Amino acid sequence: MRADGDIQYAPLPPIKPPETPGWLEALGEWLRRLLEPLGKAIGVSWPVIENVLIAVALLCVLAILWRLLQPLLARLRAEPAEAAPEWSPDRAAAVALLEDADRLAGEGRYAEAVHLLLQRSVGHIAEARPDWLLPASTAREIAAFPMLPERARQAFGTIATRVERSLFALRELQREDWSVARAAYADFALADLAG
User: Fold this and answer.
1) Which end of the chain is more exposed for a tag (fewer CB within 10 A), N or C?
2) Residue 186: exposure state from Cβ atoms within 10 A (0-12, 13-18, ≥19)
């Protein structure tokens, strides 16, 4: 192998690093003169700057916590003194929804029919009281809202439970599930959300 001229065994001569252009050295020197006093000042006063940065970080964390907890605190502080007008879903819309859901159930698509009832129930609440819902509100959270009348809360919980079984437990819903959810929706559609 040593006789093969294609393989190099002798060490390479040292490579001289390229010279730095003059303009780059001048720029470096200018930046050093400009920033050196700032660097020395920061170095000397670092203990004070460190405490200031920690205080700013704590203020940022507190501001974030306030932004996250403010809607929850506002809900807790809300007094039921202001009486909202009585509300119930529009009967024509409720009847149309039940007809659409009955059509789906008639085709044996019970899970879709129950899911439609849940979506429309959330829509009813969002139309009546948009301040109750957050974009991340889940069906379980909505079913536990203390602002909902008891009858509406029970009905919504019944519908939500069937939808959860269908979507998350991957359990096929039967006609009996549909009948229970339909009756629950009818109760919900008649309940008032006066708050």
Assistant:
1) N
2) middle
The token pair that represents 186 in the structure block: 């009818």
Instruction: Classify burial at 114, counting beta carbons within 10 Å of its beta carbon; exposed 0-12, middle 13-18, buried 19 or more.
Output: buried
Which residues, other chains included, contact 122 with Cβ-Cβ below 8 Å and sequence gap of 6+? 133, 139, 142
Q: What share of the chain is helix, strand, coil (3-state, %, to 5)?
A: 70, 0, 30
Ranges of the chain with pLDDT below 70: 79-89, 188, 190-195
* Residue pair 120/98 in contact by the 8 Å Cβ criterion: no
| Helices 46-77, 22-44: inter-axial angle, 10-degree rounding | 70
Give pLDDT tens digits for 45-55: 889 999 999 99
Flag whether the pTM goes above 0.70: no
State the residue for tokens 């009813």: 124
Close Cβ partners of 22 (under 8 Å, ≥ 6 residues apart)? none
Give the angle 116-117-119 at the CA atoms, nearest 5°. 65
Q: Dihedral (C-alpha) 164, 167, 168, 169: value to the nearest 10 degrees?
A: 90
Neighbours of 128 (CB within 10 A): 17
